[in-house]
Each structure stands twice: as C-alpha cells, then as structure tokens.
Amino acid sequence: MRAMLFVALCVLALAPQTRAQDSPQERATGEAESKPATDLAPLRVVGKRQTVDPFAFRNPVEADGTVFSRSWDEPPSLEEIGMRGGIVQIGINKGLELAAKGIRKLPGWQNQIVDAEARPPPLDEAQLARAIRLHDEHAPSRDGGERPR
C-alpha cells in the first residue's frame, strides 16, 4: 500500500508543471506566450523605521542611579573599543586620567574653575529715578510695559 502511494506521488511530482495563471488553451498547447512584466511605481520611505519588540519587557519603575552605580565603570564592548581608537588609545586616556587625578592631590593645587561673583547694579538710586522719569516722558504710555532697572 505504501509503495503504491509513493509511486503515485513520484508520478505527480515528475509530471509537467502547468501554471495556474495560464489559460486552458495555453495549457493544452503547452506553449505560454511571454507577457511583458509590469513595472510598479517606486516606493519612497519617508519616516524612520522603528523596530519595536512587542514581547520586550518594559519596566514600569524608573529608578535613579545609586552611589554604587554612579561610580561603576562598565568595561567597554568591542564596538566601543573600536570607536574610541583601540585598546592602546583607551589605555593612554586612562593613564592621563590617573595622572590628572594625582596632580589634583598635590599641595598648592588650585582648581581651574572660578566661582561667579555678582556684579553691582549698574545704576544707583538717583540715576534709576532719572531714567524712569525720562522714559515716562518720551515713551507713550503702555499697559504692562517694563521699567528700566
């Protein structure tokens, strides 16, 4: 029984294939005319493709970094090593960071950042009163206009 089923399937598989889109007349003659291919209009992608994984876990909790995670330095991936100029360049940069850290510990070192100082107001009280008086004389009255300081 299996042998007969196998032989029938082989005969069907080796039989001349006919296309479903051919008309019955073309199937009978066995010759299909070559039809010209239709050209489709070009497709232009305007937006950015976003690949969103629908099964990805989305954590509803937004946690800030802790003291430990802020000081933790994750080792770079191979891609980051290549982007930073290679392992030799990363080693040079780490050495410079350590040297700068050591220099900052030397006695007499002053930080390069200078604190900002507030400047005095540009006008004293008499000058401010005169400026307000002159402004009111020459400017048309406006509601909510700013006064000089």
Describe it.
The chain contains six helices and no strands. It is elongated. It has 149 residues and is an all-alpha fold. The model has no long low-confidence stretch (mean pLDDT 79). The longest helix is centred in the middle third of the chain and has 18 residues, at 87-104. The protein starts with a helix and ends in an 11-residue tail after the last helix.
Structural topology:
Layout lengths: L1 H13 L9 H6 L37 H5 L6 H6 L3 H18 L20 H14 L11
Give a short summary of the structure.
The chain is mainly α. The chain has helices at 2-14, 24-29, 67-71, 78-83, 87-104, 125-138.
Q: What is Rg?
A: 41 Å
Query: Span from first to last CA?
Result: 107 Å
Unreliable segments (pLDDT under 50, ≥5 consecutive)? none
Overall structural class, as computed from helix and strand content, comes to mainly alpha
Q: Determine the mean pLDDT.
A: 79
Count of runs of 4 or more consecutive helical residues: 6
Approximate helicity band = 40-55%
Strand percentage: under 5%
Largest sheet: none
The geometry reads as elongated
Number of DSSP-assigned strands: 0
- Taken in chain order, the helices and strands follow as HHHHHH
